[in-house]
From TrEMBL:
Every CRAL-TRIO domain range: 56-245
PROSITE patterns (alphabetical): CRAL_TRIO (PS50191)
The protein, known as: CRAL-TRIO domain-containing protein
Record Gene3D superfamilies: CRAL-TRIO lipid binding domain
Lineage, top ranks: Eukaryota, Viridiplantae, Streptophyta, Embryophyta, Tracheophyta
Amino acid sequence: MRAIVESQDPTSKDVDDLMIRRFLRARGQDIEQGSALFLKYLKWRRSFVPNGLISESEITSNLAHKKVFLQGLDKRGRPIVVSFGSKHLPKKEKGGVEEFCSIHSRQNMCEVTINHSSLVNGIQFRYPCINFDSDYFRMPAGQEKFVAIQDMEGWGYYSNSDTRGCLAALSILQDNYPERLGKMYLVHVSSVFMAAWKLVYPFIDSRTKKKIVFVENKKLKSTLLEDIDESQLPEIYGGEQPLVPIEES
């Protein structure tokens, strides 16, 4: 696969084997399909992230609404991202879908500096700085995936219902950052969201579908504790961690 992509796009030489391997896994070890997906990603990245990173100044509207939080690690050492669907207000955000996609791209690339350390199951993680996706960011050594808690409480009203934005963010995750998502918990899901889910579901690839878990309200804490230690679980879900906005993490 490396030989194929380097022959068609010389910039592929700057990418490490871990990244090549993720795109290959995303297409079931099919070299031709994996190469096509990777080359498409490189083209997208040059257009969408021309400077190599997304600065806070480019996503000010989204950051102002405090919708994404980044903190702690699960029991497998994967960073935890918490986001709130009700705080996404597309009609009040100047950047529209493009900025919304930018904050999700930034989230997936983990370009926000994490400068604190965490203790999980007695092991201290200090997020050593490594080169991933041609960006320098902080992740536990050898870790490729993150865990997402998507809180949908209050989503579905006129001001925050944005199926188009959800589809755009989903496309970025699947097509440009494959094999980055370890698991996604959907919590506080309403009937309104389930109606929208029926529209989104056909666009989700089979590998991603297996990583999505719908959590019952009465089993919220117990379900999250299966993968997340109480010391790393956000306080709003019965844990000990205060929420940390992504720009402050």
